[in-house]
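Listing S7. Sequence submitted for prediction.
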Amino acid sequence: MEESVRVADRIFDILETLASSTSPLSLSEIAKATGMSKSTVHRLLTSMCARQYVEKNGNGLYSIGYKLIETVSLHINQLELLTEAKPFLSDIMRDLDLTAHLGILDGCDVVYLEKMDIYPNTRLYTQVGYRSPAFCSSIGKCLLACLSGDELDEALYLCDFKRYTANTITDIREFKRYLKVIRRQGWAMDNEEYQAGHRCVGAPVFDYRGSPAAAISASGSITQLSDDKLEMVIHEVKRAAGKLSRRMGYVE
């Protein structure tokens, strides 16, 4: 255990040394700055280069790799997404009198990043950090519909397609046909598919690259989200998702 911690500390020392340098560094320079032997530094750099967290140029000099930048950027983008999303979630909650969610896709699950509840003192089945099956979630279906064929097959391979209610879609071929409809219309619905008596309408949010960054939704009981209110909710959720996408740099 102590050895693992020591190795981790050394990796962080190398990363911090490279990050603080204005130019690529040699093996000797990194060893001198970190107080480690050249052999130790070389061994760690080899592993870090293999994972693209460090790059080695043609002159044998080292610098921060694209993988570290990409990883940090994902976190920064997520923080920006949360900041930008809150006003739109607040509007959905206030104007529609429904619970608003922001979620992302993680494999075959949806992870909820934010929730604004019309009844803050009550506990529904979702909370920030909660994971739910993507195939019976409006947010999950929105994001699955945005995946390429190979990406979708990989995600659905992990889904168990368990029947949670009488409305749950459990046939993968039927589900894929439904995703095509979602892709065309730009929104998805969980119609009592995960929890009886509960409905949810979601729409995808795109980033500056045109990639699906997240999805937002409005949810409530079948009384709160009734058939006569459904068209208005779909319109407002799609409009909020479109505005948030533009805030994230998306250009149609």
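Caption to Listing S7: primary sequence and predicted structure tokens for the chain studied. DSSP finds eight helices and eight strands in the chain. The chain has two domains: 2-64, 73-247.
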